[in-house]
Structures are given as structure tokens and as C-alpha cells.
Amino acid sequence: RKHTTMQSSTMRVASLILVLSTAVAFTTQRCQLSPRILSRNRATSNRVVRMEVKDILDDSEERMKKSIESVNQNLNTLRTGRATPSLLDRINVDYYGCETPLNQLAGVSVSSGTSLVVDPYDKSALAEIEKALMESDIGIMPQNNGDVIRLSIPAVTEDRRKELLKTAKSLSEDGKVAIRNIRRDALDQVKKLQKADDISEDNAKDAQESIQSLTDKYVKQVESTMKDKETEIMTV
């Protein structure tokens, strides 16, 4: 009986050792897997960060492009003595009680380089188009022959050219300010991500450099457009 009791105790000890060994092995295995799990988590986190930064950059560039379009449209409406259809881009006509852009109601073409011809698609709108042109700030008296409207572009004096150049520079400066404001908004978003520990200092620095590159790109576009407009204004 004593021998049987010792044998039973030995078996219990062996079983306990086996259980402990299994537990240690399982714990060791979990520790070995942890680096891989952490690596996957870091990779996922990095992808999220890249997406957030990309969204900021994409949104900023889209807004900067719209600022460029606005500058171009405003500069094109300046009357420089050269006949261009864009002079009438901001003219709206009361068409059956609805304010409608002129370029949707009529074709506008250049005739002999110094005059514009407005040819309505709907001839019944001719009188309203003439009225809109007379009430606009383009400073040109329309000539209605019952079929089309002609606008003779008068020569621009030297003093008027200087005024136009001043206005053009102001419009281009407004465009650059708008682009820099977009840069400020983007940088603020990056700072918020960094403050919340969503991105590292290095990622934040890379994002800031990308934002500055976009800003430089579109500011240069404004300056190039302004240079071309200055040449146009000052060419007699």
C-alpha cells in the first residue's frame, strides 16, 4: 500500500509538471507572436496616417486650383482695349425672370479685333441682353441692329492702363492671399494630428513640406498669369 501511495504521488507531481510546462510553452509562444502582431498594428496605423495626410493635401490642392480659376476669371474681365469674349463673362441677363449668364443665352465672337458680336440664341431675348449690357460696368454702349448686338472696344489711354494694372495686381495679390490661407488651414490640421499623437514628428514635417511645395507651385502660377496680364495691359 505504501508503494502504491508513493506511485500515486509521483504521478500527480508529473501531471503538475506537465501542466506547468504546457503553460510556460503557451506563454512563450504568445510572447513570440506579439512582435508580429505589433508590426501589423503599426503597419495599419501608418496606412491610416498616410490616408489622413493625403486627404489634407488633396483638399488643399483642390482649393488652390479653384483660387487660380477665380484669379484668371477676374483678370479676364478687365478691359484692356483688346476684344475678348471673356469681357462679358460676368454679365447676367433677366431671362423670363431668371438671372442667366449671357454666355448661356448668346454666342459671343470677336469681329475685326476691336469689337464683339453678341448673337442671341433666342432673338426675343435681344432687348433684355441689350439692357443688361447698358447697366453693366463694362463702359461700352451696345449697338442693337435688331438681329445682333455689337460692342466696339474703345482704345485705352495711358492713365487707364495704369489703373488697370493696379487693379490686376490687386486681384493677383488676393489670389495669393487665398492660397496662403489654404496653406494655413492645412498646417493647422497637421498640427492637430500631431498634437493628438496620430502622426509622428517626422510624418508631420513631411506633410508640412508637401503643403509648402503646393503653395509655392500655385503662387508661381498666379505670378505667371499676372506677368502675362501686365504685358497685355501695357501693350498699345
UniProtKB/TrEMBL annotation:
Signal peptide region: 1-25
GO molecular function: ribosomal large subunit binding
Subcellular localization(s) per the UniProt record: Cytoplasm
SUPFAM superfamilies: Ribosome recycling factor, RRF
Pfam annotation, one family: RRF
GO term, biological process aspect, one: translation
Annotated InterPro entries: Ribosome_recyc_fac (IPR002661), Ribosome_recyc_fac_dom (IPR023584), RRF_sf (IPR036191)
Keywords on record: Cytoplasm, Protein biosynthesis, Signal
GO CC annotations on file: cytoplasm
Domain annotation Ribosome recycling factor: ranges: 72-234
Predominant localisation class: cytoplasm
Similarity remark: Belongs to the RRF family.
NCBIfam families: frr
Name assigned to this protein: Ribosome recycling factor domain-containing protein
